[in-house]
């Protein structure tokens, strides 16, 4: 009996103050949208692939042992000022190597001879330009530090292939705002209903 009475009161409250709940849901959705629009700007991601072949040593066993070290050294060199300073000049950017290091990711594809360079930048045109410039710089720098047979760009970064990385979730923020608005509206409806009874 008490449960049916509570349900009846709840339904009556919803019917009586539905406009308040809808209003708070709309305000919540607008607030969520506004918060999302003030978030960080999207980032753009460009990738370039390099074929990297180590010189064949006389001792094949030594080659097998040295290969992981060879690739790790190449990966580390790709993010050093020795490589990045040349890349910055080629891309005609007004930044330092330290400023862009965190925007660069260098990986080796499953122990293959392919080196992937990924650049994240807030400018869609700069991301591929910088990725390609790093690859060109590596072609010059790597032979000075490693026994390299081939350093060849096999898949250059293209501006029309750049991926947009959205750092904000506008739709999710709006839905969250609507849900919070509904909860607040429901609480206010019960408070107003209780006060009117008094």
List the helices and strands and how they pair.
Elements: H1 2-16, H2 18-37, E1 43-54, H3 60-77, H4 81-91, H5 97-100, E2 104-108, E3 114-121, H6 126-145, E4 148-155, E5 163-165, H7 170-197
Antiparallel strand pairs: 1-3, 1-4, 1-5, 2-3
Give the N-terminus to C-terminus distance in angstroms.
23 Å
Give the uncertain stretches in residue-range form.
none
Q: Into which percentage range does the β-strand content fall?
A: 15-25%
How many domains comprise the coordinates? 2
Main sheet attributes: strand count, strand direction, barrel closure: 5 strands, antiparallel
InterPro entries: Bact_polysacc_biosynth/exp
Organism: Caldibacillus thermoamylovorans
Protein name: Polysaccharide chain length determinant N-terminal domain-containing protein
Keywords: Membrane, Transmembrane, Transmembrane helix
Q: Could you walk me through the main structural features you see in this protein, from its secondary elements to its overall organization?
A:
With 198 residues, this protein is an alpha+beta fold. It folds into two domains: 2-39 and 168-197, no CATH class; 43-165, Alpha-Beta Plaits, CATH 3.30.70. The chain contains seven helices and five strands. Strands 1, 2, 3, 4 and 5 form a five-stranded antiparallel β-sheet that branches. A hairpin with a 5-residue loop joins strand 2 (104-108) and strand 3 (114-121). It is elongated. The two termini are 23 Å apart. The mean pLDDT is 82. It comes from Caldibacillus thermoamylovorans. This is Polysaccharide chain length determinant N-terminal domain-containing protein. Keywords: Membrane, Transmembrane, Transmembrane helix.
